[in-house]
Amino acid sequence: MEKFTRLTTVAAPLPQENIDTDQIIPARFLKTIQRTGLGKHLFADQRYDEQGNEKPDFVLNKPAYRKAGILITLDNLGCGSSREHAPWALQDFGIRCVIAPSIADIFHSNCFKNGLLPIRLPLEICETLMDDARQGENARLTVDLEKQQIVRPDGETIPFDVDPFWRHNLLEGLDNISQTLLREGEIEQFEQRANRAWIPSTQGENS
Amino acid sequence: MHKPSSPRTLYDKIWDDHVVLTLEDGTCLLYIDRHLLHEVTSPQAFEGLRAAGRPVRRPGATFAVADHNVPTSDRSLPIEDQQSRLQIETLERNVEEFGVPYFPLLSRKQGIAHVVGPEQGISLPGMTIVCGDSHTSTHGALGSLAFGIGTSEVEHVLATQTLLQKRAKNMLVRVEGQIGPGVTAKDIMLAIIGRTGTAGGTGYVIEYAGSAVRALDMAGRMTLCNMSIEAGARAGMVAPDETTFAYVKGRSYAPKGEAFEQAVAYWQSLRSDDGAHYDKEVFLDAAEIKPSLTWGTSPEDVMSIDGRVPSPDEATDSARAERIRRTLSYMGLEAGQKLAGTPVDAVFIGSCTNSRIEDLRAAAAIVQNRKVVPSVRAMVVPGSGLVRQQAEAEGLDKIFRDAGFEWREAGCSMCLGMNPDKLETQQRCASTSNRNFEGRQGPQGRTHLCSPSMAAAAAVTGTLCDVRELMEGAR
C-alpha cells in the first residue's frame, strides 16, 4: 500500500449529502478485472453529459480542481454499495484524502486499505474548509497525518482524529495480509477449538 | 471489553466467539466462517493472491457464484457483453485454480449469492459471514454476523480466513404488534429507514426484535436484514429461534444428525441476555405501518402510499429544501403531489431483497386473473434457479406469463443494471430492490422502492397504487 504522510494540495468542494458509491462510480463501469484506470469514470453521471462530454459546471471539470488531491463533501459520504472501485476511482483521479462530517463504514475502511485518508470532522469545520477550497488553486490545504492536523491556507491548524491502527498502517504503507499471516499459529489454534466442530465444509453437500 | 458475567447482546456473543486475538488498540483479528464470492468484486483479490504466490487458506469455508452481471435471458446462448463474459470467465478460472466450490451458470443452484447462501445451508446461524457486497447483511436473518467488505478485505479473507475489525456499537430496533393486510417485511424496513435515516446506523450493528419480527418467516427476516445497510448499518441480525432451526434443517450444506443437534444447542444460546446494553434503541408500532414506497433518490425518502411527497417549503433548513427540489426534479414529481395514480413504465420484481419464493407468491396473488397494462414492461427475476423451479412447480410462472410479465433466469438484474436489464432515461419503475439512487437502475432512471405485492399492483394498474385496493377485504 502507498504510504500517506503529508499532503499539500488543492481541495475540491462538493457540497452534497449522501454521495453514494453508485455516484462515485456507476455499476456499468465495474465490469473490469483490474484496479487501475477507473479515474476517468469517477462521478461519471455528474461529470459527463449523455454524449460523454464534460459538464463544465461540475467541480472536477473546472480548471482549478482538475488536479485536486482532496475532496470535501457533506454528510454520509460513500453510503451504499461496498464496491472498492469507489476509492480506486478517486485514487486514480488523484484524490488522496476525503473530508466529510460523516462517512459510511464500508467506504471508510476501503479508503484506508488503498492509502486514501478519510477524515470525519464536524459540519462547521467541513464548511470552513469548503470555503477555503472554493478559493481554488491559490488556497492549498495541507493534511499532516503524522501530526493529525490540517493546515488552512491562512496557517490555522485544525486537529483531526484517526484510528491509531490505520494511522500507523498508512504512515508505514504496511501490507495487512503479510502482517496477519505472522499470526498464523494463533489462527490455527482458533480453528481447532472444540466448540467449532459442528461447522461443515462447503466442499460437498452433507447427507 | 465485556466482563464474562455482564449481560451481552446477540452481536456481542457472536463477536466474542470469533476473536482470534486482540491488538493493543482494541482492533481484533476476527475469524470468518463463510466467505461468499461473486464475479465483480473478486478478480482483483485473486490477482493479488497470484502475485504474492498465496493460496486460498480454506476453500472449504468459501463459496462462489456469479450473479451481478449474468444475463437473465436464455442461458444456453453465449454472453453477448464481452466485458461481462470476461468477468464471469475470470471467476471460473479463479475458482478452478484456487479450488473454490462454485455453482456454474447453467446449474439450477445458481442465483444471487444472498439467496443461494441461506437456501443451500451454506450460511448458518452463529457464523461470521462476509462477501464483497454490502447486502451480505441479509444472512444476519439466520442469527449470524454477516457484513459486506471491499476487495482488499476479500483478498485478506482468502489469504488468512480473518479480518481486522473494531467492535461496532449495538442498536436495537424493536417492532411490536401486528402488521395490517397488505403490509410486508419490506414496508416494515422502509418504515425503519424512514425513521433512522440512511446514516442512522453508521457504526452500529442492528438487532431486529419484537413480536412483529418474531412473526416473520425467514424470507421476511432476510428482507429486513438485507436493507440494514440502507440504514447505514454494516450488519443486521435476528436471534435464531424455532423458525430459524426449522428453515435450516435438511438444507444441503447444513450439518446433519448429531452435528445438527450440537449446532442447535449452541444456536439456542444466541440471544441477547436480559439487561444487555444497546447504544441506541428504536421502537416501531407495527399496526401504524402502511404499505409504503420511496418518492426520492435515497432509501430514507419513504412515504406511505396514501401520503404526499414533501415540498421544499416544509423543509427546516435551506440545504434540505435544496435537496428536496433537486430530488423532485430528478424524479419528475411535483411538490406535495400524491404518488398513487402516477403512471409507471417498468416493474421489477427481484433482487436479494425480494426474490424468494414467498415474495413471488405474494406478487402472484395480486397478479392472478389480471393483466399487465400494455405500456408497462414488467419482469420477474427469481433469486435462484431453485426459486424459479419451485415457482414453476406451483404454477406461478404461468400466472406471471399469462398476465404479461417476463419470466427470467436468476441474477441481480435490474437492481443495479450491470447486465442488459436497465431502465431507459426517465423511465419510472416500481421496484422490489433496495436502492433508489440516481442512475442505479439505468442512467436517469426513476426508482420507487416497494414490496412485491405493491410492485405487482403497479404492473396491473399501470400506476403506483395502494395494493389494499386490489385485495379482497383489505380495507
Automatic annotation (TrEMBL), chain A:
Keywords: Amino-acid biosynthesis, Branched-chain amino acid biosynthesis, Isomerase, Leucine biosynthesis, Lyase. One of its GO terms (molecular function) is isomerase activity. It holds the Pfam family Aconitase_C. It comes from the Bacteria. InterPro entries: 3-IsopropMal_deHydase_ssu, Aconitase/3IPM_dehydase_swvl, AconitaseA/IPMdHydase_ssu_swvl, IPMI_Swivel, LeuD. It catalyses: (2R,3S)-3-isopropylmalate = (2S)-2-isopropylmalate. Pathway: Amino-acid biosynthesis; L-leucine biosynthesis; L-leucine from 3-methyl-2-oxobutanoate: step 2/4. Its EC number is 4.2.1.33. It is an enzyme of class 4 (lyase). CDD domains: IPMI_Swivel. Residues 1-122 form the Aconitase A/isopropylmalate dehydratase small subunit swivel domain. Heterodimer of LeuC and LeuD. Belongs to the LeuD family. LeuD type 1 subfamily. Catalyzes the isomerization between 2-isopropylmalate and 3-isopropylmalate, via the formation of 2-isopropylmaleate. PANTHER family: 3-ISOPROPYLMALATE DEHYDRATASE SMALL SUBUNIT, 3-ISOPROPYLMALATE DEHYDRATASE SMALL SUBUNIT 2-RELATED-RELATED. This is 3-isopropylmalate dehydratase small subunit.
Automatic annotation (TrEMBL), chain B:
It is an enzyme of class 4 (lyase). PROSITE patterns: ACONITASE_1, ACONITASE_2. Keywords: 4Fe-4S, Amino-acid biosynthesis, Branched-chain amino acid biosynthesis, Iron, Iron-sulfur, Isomerase, Leucine biosynthesis, Lyase, Metal-binding. Its EC number is 4.2.1.33. This is 3-isopropylmalate dehydratase large subunit. Its cofactor is [4Fe-4S] cluster. One of its GO terms (molecular function) is isomerase activity. Belongs to the aconitase/IPM isomerase family. LeuC type 1 subfamily. Heterodimer of LeuC and LeuD. Catalyzes the isomerization between 2-isopropylmalate and 3-isopropylmalate, via the formation of 2-isopropylmaleate. The gene is leuC. Pathway: Amino-acid biosynthesis; L-leucine biosynthesis; L-leucine from 3-methyl-2-oxobutanoate: step 2/4. It holds the Pfam family Aconitase. Residues 12-462 form the Aconitase/3-isopropylmalate dehydratase large subunit alpha/beta/alpha domain. Gene3D superfamilies: Aconitase, domain 3. It comes from Saccharibacter floricola DSM 15669. InterPro entries: 3-IsopropMal_deHydase_lsu, Acnase/IPM_dHydase_lsu_aba_1/3, Acoase/IPM_deHydtase_lsu_aba, Aconitase_4Fe-4S_BS, Aconitase_4Fe-4S_dom, IPM_dehydratase_rel_enz, IPMI_cat.
